[in-house]
Amino acid sequence: MNILAIGDIVGSGGVNYTLSKIDGIIEKYNVDFVIANAENSASGNGITKEIAQKLINAKVDVITLGNHAFSKKDVVNLLLNMPVIRPINYPEKTVGEGFYIKEKKGKKIAVINAMGRLNLLNIDCPFKAVMRKVNQIKEKCDIIIVDFHAEATSEKIAFANYLDSDVCAVFGTHTHVQTADERILPGGTAYITDIGMTGPIDSILGVKKDIIIRRFLTQMPEKFYQAEGKNELRGVVFEIDDKTNKCVNIVRVKE
Predict the structure, then answer these.
(1) Which of 68, 149, 174, 176 is catalytic?
(2) Which strands sit side by side in the sheet containing 84-85, from one edge to the other?
(3) What is the C-alpha separation between 197 and 67, in angstroms, rounded?
(4) Helix (H, G, I), strand (E, B) or coil at 179
(5) Domains and CATH numbers, the chain
(6) What is the pLDDT of residues 23-74, one digit of tens each?
(7) Least packed by Cβ within 10 Å: which of 5, 23, 78, 221?
């Protein structure tokens, strides 16, 4: 089984580019299941019902979010009625779920979304929250994949090693820069620090360059506007052995 994870989709350019490329990527890599992080898909800040529906119609099986999960009002409806999940370590009474289970090709696949705390929100511990859920669902799931939306590389690596052997794969999102450290950890869990961004290439993490440069020069706040121009899609494909349900190969995607 091959599972595709698409990196943070940024703005309308990233959404439209994903829609134009996804069929070709699915065919090229013989993909069976698709995860997409779309927390920046609505003008770089959150997600809307229209965008979520477009991605689902385009064969995305589950949409993950992050620190911008609740930036748009209609996300509540999405979390309750669509395969859209928010970080599992939000407080207990937060609307929505932090995991999603779907059967594909005879395999029950669970996707868990979690968020780091270093330089992000002061929410519940992602390590404990994810492990609790893993222990609850591991007997009824064949494959567990975790999207860890986090800023700090150290937190991501520690998180993956904490879950090593308990989940099939951990991939990082949020920084918008694809890393080249993909590997299989000693316990068998596949890991990559960040799968990258799907959005405008000539930008600073998806935002117009002059805005970000001015912020660094002046230290003054300024509204972000999404960059335009040529886009690219970044992500990874996890190749999973059908007999062991373990990842045997990780392929970085750049289209």
Answers:
(1) 68
(2) 84-85, 62-64, 33-37, 2-6, 234-240, 247-254
(3) 15
(4) coil
(5) 2-254 (3.60.21.10)
(6) 999 999 999 999 999 999 998 889 999 999 999 999 999 999 999 989 998 8
(7) 221
